[in-house]
Amino acid sequence: MKAQAATAMTPDVCAREVMETVPLVMRFIRTEMRSRRAPLLSVPQFRVLTFLSGRPGAPLSSVAEHLGVARSTASATVDRLVRRELVSRTTHPEERRSVVLRLTTIGAEHLQQAREAASSRMAKVLAGLTAADLLQVAQGLALLGSALKEITVPRRR
User: Fold this and answer.
1) Which of 6, 31, 39, 151 could be 110's S-S partner, Cβ–Cβ 3.0 to 4.6 Å?
2) What is the CATH number of the domain that holds 30?
């Protein structure tokens, strides 16, 4: 963060900092995911697996909404994951036209591998920070996460 006096920090200034930093973090994660290729997951596939790990049984429409893409695009991504046996797709027990998506055991393992690889690389980057800086980053992320969770509660369908 630029040298901002605590008194000069406003919600607008902080929002600009977040908007400048988050894309850098996402670019880092994407680059790491592409360079490792251990689990052979694209970033959208990784996002689908992450989403389904927290919302087993989610419908395709929720996956599409999470990715910010059309249902057809989400369906194509899910199709690839189903073919690789990382995701299972079954018919909803009460709604024949609806499908239920879940991680398979293999999918959960791939997700864990991808998370560990990206996390390990991030830890190497963060190793250059002091303990006080690390605490400040962690606290800032926790605060941001709390603020966002309050307004982005997942909808149940």
Assistant:
1) 39
2) 1.10.10.10
Q: Which long-range contacts (CB under 8 A, 24 or more apart) does 51-54 make?
A: 52/87, 52/101, 52/102, 52/103, 52/107, 53/103, 53/108, 53/111
Q: Between β-strands 99-103 and 87-91, what pairing exists: parallel, antiparallel or unpaired? A: antiparallel
Contact 99, 34 (CB under 8 A): no
Measured CA to CA in angstroms, residue 150 lies from 103, 146, 147 at distances of 26, 6, 6
- Alpha-carbon distance values, 107 to 51, 103, 139 (Å): 12, 5, 31
For residue range 114-142, list pLDDT tens digits in order.
788 888 989 999 999 999 999 999 999 99
Question: Using CA atoms, how far apart are residues 17 and 143, in angstroms rounded to an integer?
Answer: 14
Q: Which long-range contacts (CB under 8 A, 24 or more apart) does 90-95 make?
A: 92/59
33 lies in some domain = yes
Q: Could you give the number of structural domains in the chain?
A: 1
Q: How far apart are CA 134 and CA 5, in angstroms?
A: 19
pTM (predicted TM-score): 0.68
Q: Which pair of structure tokens corresponds to residue 71?
A: 């249902």
